[in-house]
Structures are given as structure tokens and as C-alpha cells.
């Protein structure tokens, strides 16, 4: 168990709130507790999903739990739990905003007739 992983008391409160697993098919390789701890690690560290430590399972598997819960809640992918919209990249990412009108953008190519 990692330093910031859920202890038994909080896990006992959280576990009944999680959906039941599928009964048929191959049994899961990683426990729900490992995957939830992986989500918590990624949220705390702010790292990409691919950097989630292997003790929590593959980053794609951990992200799959988040993706399914967002799909079930009807929340769009770029929207947080409190309804705030996060930047997804492009000119406005990082709070820089769009380039002012009439000014050159670094790395932009100009086409000349």
C-alpha cells in the first residue's frame, strides 16, 4: 500500500457505493481498490494517465474507469465534476488566450499570393 492510498476505514465506506462487477467472463486482474487508488494518484500528481504507477494497473485501465463513470453521468469529457470546463489544447491552452489581431504568431506560416 502506498503512502496516500486509501486505508481500510475509508475504503469500507466507498466500496458499497461502487457498481457491482460483471459476473461472466474473465475475472479482473486488478481490484477496484487498486484502480481507485490509481485515479487518486493521478489526480494528486497531475501526471498523464500513461504515467500512473503499475501497482495501480495500466494507465488505460485506470482511465477506463473514469471514462465509463463520465459516460454514465452524462458529463462531457472536458467538463470537471463541479461543471467547470477545462482547456483541451490549441491557442487558448495554458491561459494564454488567442493571439491579438494583426500580430504574428510564433511558428505560423504565411501564404503569399
* Strand fraction: under 5%
- The parts where pLDDT drops under 50 for at least 5 residues are none
Largest sheet: none
Kindly name the structural category.
mainly alpha
What's the oligomerization state?
Answer: single chain
Q: Got a strand count?
A: 0
Q: Give the C-alpha Rg.
A: 20 Å
Relative helix content: 25-40%
Distance between the ends: 64 Å
Mean of residue pLDDT values: 77
Tell me the overall shape: globular
> SSE order, as H and E?
HHH
DSSP summary: helix tally: 3
Molecular structure report:
Helix 2 packs across helix 3 (59-73). The longest helix has 15 residues, at 59-73. With 113 residues, this protein is mostly helical. Helix content is 32%, strand content 0%. It has helices spanning 8-14, 32-45, 59-73. It contains 3 helices and no strands. The N and C termini lie far apart (64 Å). The model has no long low-confidence stretch (mean pLDDT 77). The chain has a domain at 30-76.
